[in-house]
Design a protein that fits this description.
InterPro entries: Bact_solute-bind_prot3, Solute-binding_3/MltF_N. By secondary structure, this protein is of the alpha/beta class. It has helices spanning about 1-20, 25-35, 60-70, 90-95, 110-115, 155-165, 180-185, 200-205, 235-255, 260-265, 270-275, 295-300, 305-310, and strands at about 35-40, 50, 55, 80, 100, 115-120, 125, 125-130, 145-150, 170-175, 195, 215, 225, 230. Helix 6 (about 155-165) links the parallel strand 9 (about 145-150) and strand 10 (about 170-175). The radius of gyration is 22 Å and the shape is globular. Residues about 1-20 have low confidence and may be disordered.
Length: about 350
């Protein structure tokens, strides 16, 4: 009897494996339709934002395009679905989008209970507060009794509550569904301060009538590792999205850019570079991709430094320093496993 039960369990396990293998993977679905569908924010300059002609740009947009470049050799084979914080996880769970690239914080609960997997971190951030300079506030510890605007369905709400509770201060939350609504409430004077990730504060400040009239307070009250999210259970797809990011970090370490990648692929004798660019071995086959998939990511989208500088760097309206997002070799925490 014991033996028969074992047989039944083994048969069931085999059947389940065959069934899972027969189901179309995300990669197969994406190849069949000819593009990657990415969920992005409703508009955060530097991360995912559309211009008046509907052209999207930003760090999160480039994360989507890097995945498209890896699969198709064409970063433009990406489409974007703008989502509120409240909508984003449902859109991914339901299959409306293939990957969520929407400045989303990796947390224990989100990773463990939503049927989703986080991939590589493409921006390390932390929550802060923005106030009018005229308010005379210089520290978040001066915010006792403040009215605070924020977006619904975010870790920001929870962090805000924790911060005020920890410091035994009172506050009045003004919680709205969309980030732009929170900014509009702040701009109209409905609240004293606006809170979100510090990168988001810098991005939203650039949209105010007089950005110089507003200050981002010094305190950082949380850890906010941001990055793409995929559905749980498709390891191949998770690996593709993850390594599309890791390739950009490795390329920066090796001083490979979108401008010199063709020359380096042709001339380099460095085994690590040859593996990365598909000139030696066939790393792409392990992901179900072409041998030159990583080369295409770099050529089409650039290395991590290029992505950072053109979207949120000091020369952009967002104007962020590299800070903690520097490479690990330069005092930051940006680090990628080797391609070997």
């Amino acid at each position: 009897m014991k033996s028969n039960v074992g047989k039944l369990l083994s048969t069931a396990a085999i059947a389940a494996t065959i069934s899972a293998g027969a189901a179309a993977s995300t990669l197969e679905d994406v190849k069949a339709k000819g593009f990657v569908q990415c969920g992005v924010s409703l508009g955060v300059p530097g991360f995912s934002n559309a211009d008046s002609n509907g052209n999207w740009s930003g760090i999160d947009v480039d994360a989507c395009r890097a995945t498209a470049a890896a699969i198709f050799g064409d970063a433009q084979k990406a489409k974007f679905t703008p989502l509120s914080a409240k909508e984003r996880f449902t859109a991914l769970q339901s299959g409306e989008i293939d990957v969520l690239t929407r400045n989303t914080t990796w947390t224990y609960t989100r990773d463990a209970s939503l049927g989703l997997d986080f991939t590589a971190v493409n921006f390390y951030d932390g929550q802060g507060f923005m106030a009018r300079k005229a308010l005379g506030v210089t520290s978040a510890l001066d915010l006792d009794g403040a009215t605070v605007c924020t977006e619904q369905g975010t870790t920001t709400e929870l962090n805000m509550a924790d911060f005020f509770r920890k410091h035994k201060m009172s506050y009045v939350p003004v919680v709205v569904q969309k980030a732009d609504e929170a900014l509009a409430a702040y701009a109209s004077g409905r609240c004293d301060v606006f809170t979100t990730d510090k990168s988001g504060l810098a991005a939203h400040r650039s949209k105010l009538a007089d950005p110089a009239a507003h200050i981002i307070l010094e305190e950082t009250i949380s850890k906010e590792p941001l990055g793409p999210v995929v559905r749980h259970g498709d390891n191949q797809w998770k690996d593709i999205v993850t390594w599309a990011m890791f390739v950009q970090v490795n390329a920066e370490e090796m001083n490979i850019t979108s401008k010199n990648v063709a020359k380096i692929k042709k001339e380099s004798n460095d085994p690590a570079i040859k593996r990365l660019l598909g000139a030696e071995g066939d790393m792409g086959a392990q992901l179900g991709l072409s041998a030159d998939w990583a080369y295409n990511v770099i050529a089409e989208v650039g290395n991590y430094a290029e992505v950072f500088e053109r979207n949120v760097g000091p020369s952009t309206p967002v104007g962020l320093p590299r800070g903690i997002n520097k490479l690990w070799t330069d005092g930051g925490v940006m680090y990628a496993p080797p391609v070997r």
